[in-house]
Design goal:
By secondary structure, the protein is mainly alpha-helical. The chain contains 14 helices and no strands. The mean pLDDT is about 85.
Length: about 280
């Protein structure tokens, strides 16, 4: 039996990278479920091991920055900011993938270029615009901003994914008398579930993990998102690393759970990143 040395080397490197990558996560996990006195000499010291949910409970119901309220606020922002750009972006992407119009190439180029605009460059104009619209310090306003910010990459992703779908099925449906909307709704969308799942997982993760835009637009204590509450859990004279670790673990757990739920679609949907002419 011939041994594939290259494959073995690749697997060893991959496992080594995975091990190094997961070490900090293990440290956060141990700090969140164990008393500080047990990990003061290192989380890998298991001479004493008395796990509990005390730190997690204290993070969720923190006296000054309860994470439970932050999670609710984050979901209020994240769920609409995931669903709305997918709906709008899928419709626009289908138009780019299937129809021809005069300024199609220039408009698509503009959308692609918008992806290169850094958030920091629009911070002040965005703040002024949201203030004029009366959407400053509003969870719905922040959700609208994330919807607009996610549209360019979602259109690019879905346009390239639609380009991989067979046109013959749509043409057959059109011959049978189906309208464009019926074709899109009953044929294209069901075939696009892997791409939609990939977009949903990525958009949800990016909006959920956002700190910069939330820092600019949300400032009322009762409206702060989960990511904004994490720094507030540091005391002025004392830092409870167990509570901070537990809060960090809770925040990163939400997108991980979503990814696991959509995992069977996620990898197949990544074909949408392949750019086609």
């Amino acid at each position: 039996m011939k041994i594939n040395k290259v494959a073995i080397l690749i697997n060893v490197i991959a496992w080594a990278i995975s091990f190094v990558w997961i070490l900090p996560l293990m440290g956060i996990l141990m700090a969140s479920i164990r008393p500080y006195k047990e990990i003061v000499r290192g989380w890998w010291d298991f001479s004493e091991f008395n796990p509990s949910l005390t730190n997690i409970f204290n993070a969720l119901y923190h006296p000054t920055a309860p994470l439970s309220k932050g999670i609710v606020n984050s979901l209020i922002v994240t769920i609409p900011a995931t669903i709305m750009p997918i709906i709008i972006g899928a419709l626009a992407a289908y138009a780019f993938a299937r129809y021809s119009f005069t300024i199609k190439s220039y408009l698509f180029l503009t959308i692609v270029l918008l992806m290169a605009v850094p958030q920091q460059s629009i911070a002040i104009p965005l703040f002024q615009l949201m203030k004029k619209l009366g959407l400053l310090d509003s969870l719905i306003g922040l959700s609208i901003v994330h919807t607009a910010w996610g549209l360019p990459w979602i259109i690019l992703f879905m346009k390239n994914f639609f380009a991989t779908l067979p046109v013959e099925v749509e043409e057959a449906a059109r011959i049978d008398g189906a309208t464009d909307f019926q074709i899109f709704y009953k044929i294209v969308l069901p075939l696009s579930l892997p791409g939609i799942a990939s977009v949903a997982a990525l958009q949800f993760t990016w909006v959920w993990s956002d700190f910069f835009l939330a820092l600019i637009l949300i400032y009322s204590p009762d409206k702060l998102l989960a990511t904004q509450r994490l720094p507030l859990m540091r005391g002025q004279y004392h830092v409870d690393w167990g509570v901070l670790s537990a809060a960090s673990l809770i925040i990163i757990a939400v997108p991980i759970v979503l990814y696991l739920a959509l995992q069977k679609y996620y990898i197949r949907g990544m074909v949408g990143w392949v750019v086609k002419g």
